Amino acid sequence: MTKAKQAELDKIKQQILDDKVCADLAGTATQLVFGDGNPDAELVFIGEAPGKNEDEQGLPFVGAAGRFLNEMLEGIGLKRSDVYITNIVKYRPPNNRDPLPSEKMEFLPYLRAQLEVIKPKIVVTLGRHSMDSLLPGLQISKVHGQPKRYKDQIYMPLFHPAAALYNGGMRQTLIEDFEKIPLVLAKI
Predict the structure, then answer these.
(1) The model's pTM
(2) pLDDT on residue 61
């Protein structure tokens, strides 16, 4: 199963390159940061866009926010290799600016295709950009840590791990929300 799914994911990655998605953004980035992890994962984590470290290494969540994500995964008995991690926008925006609505829209069909292949039990959105793209009209401050069913998929909106790096109080909230993930998985 894993090999077939990985081959499908590789096709989607190639499609992004062939379709020249967000060509302007691609021109300012080092490389496409497609995703990383287990194609058979029950959990898919979706961030906003690659940062500097991600752009250099070609992998999502490898900087300080990624280390915190790894820590939280370990806290619920998981490793990175158990889950799949990606972003809405797959090229680093210049100067780490927020991804533009048009960039998120352009990448959305490819993200949906990734989810279609992986078929996770829960999609965990990290930050408001990925939440807005998949669950429009919600406010993260009101719905974080609460599972939402939308079109036969369970979503769990969480604050972005980077938020905890800038705001110490957010760290505990994120850890507590994260600890709900195994409980939600067990109910599915």
Answers:
(1) 0.96
(2) 96
